[in-house]
Amino acid sequence: MYPFNNLKDLKRLLYFLLLSIIFCDNSTYAQYYTVKERIMHLQTFDEKPLHYGYFLGFNSFGYQIQYNSNYSVPSNRNFPNNKRGLNLPNIELIKNTGFNVGLIGDLRLNKYFNLRLEPGLYYTQRDLIYPEATSGLKNDEDYLREVKSTYIHIPLLVKFSAKRINNFKPYLVAGMSTSFNLSSNQKNNDDNYSNVFRVTSQSFNYEIGFGIDFYLVYFKFSPSIRGIFSIQNELVQDNNSNSPWTSNIKNLLSQGIAINLTFE
Q1: Hey, what CATH topology would domain 7-29+49-263 get?
Q2: So where are the chain's domains?
Q3: Measured CA angle at 161 (ends 180, 231), to 5 deg
Q4: For the segment 66-91, what is each residue's pLDDT rounded down to a tens digit?
């Protein structure tokens, strides 16, 4: 499960943190004399024009499911109304925890901005459980679809850092990314009638996140949290246009949270 009620809450939190860093940065340093000075580690680290690193972490991905307007069930079933006023049984989505690993290339633009390339391997799984009211499903295994994804994830990000305070410095990142799904089954001729759920092999996303740089004696350690939001439909429709698994879905958009532990 996500640590937020939904990913909209994460977006609001990230935007709030961005504004907080921008507007509070100067006021914090106006009172810098109240901060006890400590031994400074890696004092010239951020002056390097280019440096590298790697990250490890975990993720939790889900889907934003947008239904077709005719997706409905008999009115005597007690399902909540959607924005269109139809009685819709939502497809239940179960999110599983996956893992991430990758490399980092960081280009210094100026004192506050860096350009970062963070190619990595992301593994995750999402389970779709179709409601009992779905027409055309008969056996128990028909109601469950396990969507396993192995992404080669390539984000290009801008990192905005606040001023350094002793041996730590908060920052925000934002940018665009593309993901190549090695488990997409897009070119597979089999579909859900053969228990094969297909999605597109490539997707495009935008990302926003925040973290803190900790300057240790020999390296910089940076834990961060990031939201990843797809901007295109990833669903590949079944060959049968009336498929109970895909015909009722208009768009399927990946949305995820990644927590990375970075070493530079």
Answers
A1: Porin (2.40.160)
A2: 7-29+49-263
A3: 30
A4: 988 777 654 444 444 444 444 557 88
